[in-house]
Amino acid sequence: MKFKVPGPSLTRRLVLLAAGWSFAVLIAASLLLTAQFRREFLARFDAQLAEHVESLLARTEIIEGDVVPPEFTDGRAERAHSGRYWQIAEIGPDGRIAVRVRSKSLFAGDPNMPVPPEAIADLGREPTGTYEYDTIGPAQEPLRVAAKLSVLPTPAGNVPLLFIVGEDRRPVDAGARRFAATAFIALILLGFGLMAAVFIQVRVGLKPLFDLRREVAEVRKGRADKLIQSYPAELAPLAEELNALVAHNHEVVERQRTHVGNLAHALKTPISVMVAEAGKKPGVLADVVRRQTEAMHGHVEHHLRRARAAARSQSNREQTPLEPVLDELARTLERIFRDKKVAVDWTCPADLAFQGERQDLLEIIGNVMENACKWSKGKVRAVAEPKEAGKLCVVIEDDGPGLPADRRTDVLKRGARLDEKTPGTGLGLSIVDELARAYGGDLTLGDSALGGLKVEIILPRAEG
Amino acid sequence: MRVLVVEDDPDLARQLKSALSDAGYAVDHAPDGEEAAFLGDTEPYDAIVLDLGLPKIDGVSVLEQWRRDGIATPVLILTARGAWSEKVAGFDAGADDYLTKPFHTEELLARLRALLRRTAGHASANLACGELMLDPKAARASVNGEPLRLTSLEYRLLHYLMMHQARVISRTELVEHLYDQDFDRDSNTIEVFVGRLRKKIGPDRIETVRGLGYRLTPLAGETS
User: Fold this and answer.
1) Which CATH architecture has domain B2-120?
2) What b-and-e string marks burial along B84-97, b requiring 16 or more CB atoms within 10 Å of the CB?
């Protein structure tokens, strides 16, 4: 079977989707917030500048045609390149600007603060307003400038004067940047928090789906025979369908198994007839018939076992108490071997159970016990006891001739028969070995204290 | 010895009948469960060979019914179903032995002999009554070491008498155990056969108990 490459996981899809939109929203929010904050900050800064320019204007006098600024404007304006500047210029009738006075912070060699023509135009349209603009200061610092127009009376007439106050705007930018950084980090954290929340939500939300998967796996492994958990409305129909499918599957396998079993058993009578008929008159034909019917019998047995194995792979949740099985087998075998007067002495804890089908347990113990009875001189002992780690152990011993160590592996081989004179198919122990292994168990041969063979069978134990 | 063969396959039934007749048994045949149940209940068989997969009523049910009705006839189950679960079920239903198909005719005959011997309570395979010997395996008898030449009915008569020696056996019982169902029964013929057998084994071994029947005993001076 070829596995399809799995599509993107549902969890990943949901988390990525949530991540996508929440990060988009968060980034937009952070941009909006930062912009808004910068605008507010700048507005306040501008308001301060306007205040300054207003105060400069108010306290400036024209004395004998000279523009006389206030004695002391503010400490910073006295220091060179301090970041706070002002200048007062006269606007000539031709629109040319002639600087009359400027702050001491503007050094002797420094150029005047530039005034863009839009400022004059704007102020011309609205003479009472303040115009703010950005420019570069003498120390190459970015400046925010507020300009205001005022007409002061002089002896020579009214002179339009342009008052300008500039201030280093880097603190504003830095503040905005700091805010943006903080906001960004906060939002990133929020984003990850959201992601974690979404992940948990998806996990919890999809839990029934994971449960469903686990249950289906249990069914496939034969540890459960159907889904038993109750599922939310969206999954319940799926679970029902799955149960129906499993049941159908069981039924089909069971039916096939029954068919194979019936066919195999039905073939045995014709085989018997042919064997008997061929045995009456020796000859080439009889030989061929005998050989072929033997082969047929082999096939029949083989496929019967295969059919049983198929049924076993479906489910081995069945639990079979050991005690009644030992009791039944001991009684039956004592009856079969009553001419030999074989006594089967067995012990088994009442609560010991085998994790598997009764039929298989009967087959395993029955074959080993029959072997023991066949070879024994009258005494067979079977002891069943629990072992560690979910295993149980059945030891079956007899007082017969036993088996040399070097022959022991041979008996477990398919079809091996040690003594052709003792009736039986010879498959006994190898079938047992095969069955025990199919259950994850084991079979070992050894010497019995009774004098004969000791067979130790390890099988899975049913818990609880 | 009279045996009932319950088997639905006609070829196998024919084979079994002929093999059992050759071995000296009177054989009846039932092809289905219903007839088997009826015959087993009404005829005094010495043993029954029972197939399990039968039409109408299955073998295990037939066997259970016989046992419920108090029929203690030894039953040998002959079936294709060889799993231990099926064997255990068969024995639980009251079977005395179990043989799985495909089987060898010799093994079936051996099991049947063992079954009959066990039922009659004999320890050894060969039967003896004084110097009179019978080997059921070979279907041969001898007196003082001399082989006897017996017809099939004479052999059956001797076999039955030896199985139940020292007991008085009525003519009716003999008729029921020596002839199969289809035979035209006439208890007078028993007298004829007893007469012939006396000629071959010596006149005094079979005693006539007037009004009751016959008894086989060793001759005075012989140990049984």
Assistant:
1) 3-Layer(aba) Sandwich (3.40)
2) bbbbbbbbebbbbb
Minimal C-alpha gap between B101 and chain A (Å): 6
Within-domain flag for A213: no
What is the average pLDDT across B133-139? 82
Identify the three-state secondary structure at position A57. Answer: helix
CB–CB of A336 and B98 under 8 A?
Answer: yes
Tell me how close the Cα of A369 comes to any Cα of chain B, in angstroms. Answer: 11
Residues A126 and A252 in one domain: no
Question: Quick one: pLDDT at residue B160?
Answer: 87
Residues of chain B found within 8 Å of residue A266, distances taken between Cβ atoms: 53, 80
* Tokens (6 digits) for B42: 């009404």
Q: Residue B85 in contact with residue A358, Cβ under 8 Å?
A: yes
- Indicate yes or no: CB of B12 within 8 angstroms of CB of A367: no
Our CA-based measurement puts residue A304 at a distance from the nearest CA of chain B, in whole angstroms, of 10
Report domain B127-216's class: mainly alpha
pLDDT score, position A316: 57
Q: Which amino acid is at A74?
A: D
On chain B, the residues whose CB falls within 8 A of the CB of A293 are 102
Are A451 and A439 a contacting pair, CB within 8 Å? Answer: no
Domain boundaries, chain B: 2-120, 127-216
Q: How far from the centroid of its chain's Cα atoms is residue A25's Cα?
A: 27
A242 with A342, same domain?
no
The tens digit of pLDDT for each residue in A42-90 reads 999 999 989 988 888 888 888 877 788 887 767 777 888 888 888 888 8
Judge residue B220's burial from the number of C-beta atoms within 10 Å of its C-beta, 0-12 exposed, 13-18 middle, 19 or more buried: exposed
> Chain A residue with minimal CA distance to B115?
A339
**Number of C-beta neighbours around residue B65 at 10 A:** 18
Same structural domain, A266 and A137: no
What is the predicted pLDDT for the residue at A43?
A: 92
Mutate to test the interface with A, among B51, B84, B118 (most CBs of A within 10 A): B84
CB-based contact, A358 to chain B, within 8 Å: yes
Domain-located, residue A231? no
Residues 100-139 of B with CB under 8 A from A: 100-105, 107, 114, 118
Q: Tell me the pTM.
A: 0.63
- Do A443 and A321 lie in one domain? The reply is yes
Confidence of residue A418 (pLDDT cuts 50, 70, 90): very low
Q: What is the pLDDT of residue A425?
A: 46
Contact of B89 with chain A, judged by CB distance below 8 Å, is answered with no
Q: Which residues of A touch B67 (CB under 8 A)?
A: none
- The residue of chain A with its CA nearest to that of B117 is A339
Query: Of A269, A292, A312, which residue sits at a domain end?
Result: A312
User: What is the extent of the structural domain holding A338?
Assistant: 316-460
Collect all residues with Cβ–Cβ distance below 8 Å to B186 and sequence separation of at least 6: none
Instruction: For residue A421, give the chain B residue with the closest CA.
Output: B107
